[in-house]
Amino acid sequence: MAGAGDAAGAGGVHGAESLNAERESRNAEHRYQRRTPSDLPLLFRVPRSEFRVGKGDGLGFVRIIAGEFKGRRLKTPATDKVRPTGDRVREAWFSILQRSLRGARVLDLFAGTGALGLEALSRGAATADFVELHRLALASLKANIKTLAVEDRAAIHKVDALRFAERLHRGQYDVAFADPPYADEQAARLVAMFRVNAFAGIFSIEHPADKPIPGDDTRRYGDTAVTFIYAP
After folding, report:
1. Fold of 46-230
2. How many CB atoms lie within 10 A of CB 227?
3. Quick one: pLDDT at residue 228?
4. Which residues of the chain, if any, have pLDDT below 70?
């Protein structure tokens, strides 16, 4: 049979257990509140991969990584038809190409917002030709060229990228980029075309990491890959 001291001790234990339970409840609430989407930094709310810009959801933006226009933001269209290359992929991509860009003639196929070609101009390329068909992408591309005041170094071609590439002659450009839609086989078709007619010294193509294409060197960044093909 428990005495008074035992009862007091039991009451103290029960009180401590109650206090601990209340603290745990408050901590759980606090942890939950800290993880609500509105409280998280923007980077962690971009879907699918931190290497990719948000698609038409207003979460992402594109900026120039380095060079003359470093830090300048580029306009992106509010549509899921355009998938701009994310900052971290471009940073790694251009670190490989940096020595080839000074004074280069650049081609940007499936240009979208122009992020690749404009990054090249910022890093010292002489000229850039942008090939794009999508209406909203063209509007953003034109606005970005105007914002950076590079109209005298840039040309826009409103035409299908594959048809444009078919008409090129060997060595017409020093560096060429392509960021075709992920859903089809245009990346592989571009590689085959380039093998027959090397229209640039270096051709690099963005594609899904889980859909490899034949090339000379492939780098993977999360769910995105960039394959490089070199002229013979």
Report:
1. Rossmann fold (3.40.50)
2. 22
3. 97
4. 1-60, 79-84
Phi, psi of 91 (to 5 degrees): -60, -45
Dist. CA 118–CA 141, nearest whole Å = 10
Neighbours of 231 (CB within 10 A): 16
CA–CA gap between residue 139 and residue 130 (Å, rounded): 13
Amino acid residing at 143: A
Contact assessment for residue 128 and residue 98, using Cβ atoms and an 8 Å cutoff: no
CB 173 within 8 A of CB 164: no
- Rounded to whole angstroms, the Cα distance separating 209 from 226 reads 8
91: three-class secondary structure by DSSP: helix
Distances in whole angstroms, Cα of residue 104 to Cα of each of 51, 157, 179, 226: 27, 19, 19, 20
Q: Domain extents for the chain?
A: 4-37, 46-230
Length of the chain in terms of residues written: 232
pLDDT in tens, 122-157: 999 999 999 999 999 999 999 999 999 999 999 999
User: How far, in Å, CA of 177 to CA of 184, rounded?
Assistant: 17
- Sign of the alpha-carbon dihedral angle for 146, 148, 149, 151: negative
What was the pLDDT predicted at 60? 52
Following DSSP, what letter does each residue of 162-227 receive, concatenated? HHHHHT--TTSEEEEEE---TTSSHHHHHHHHHHHS--EEEEEEEEETTS----SEEEEETTEEEE
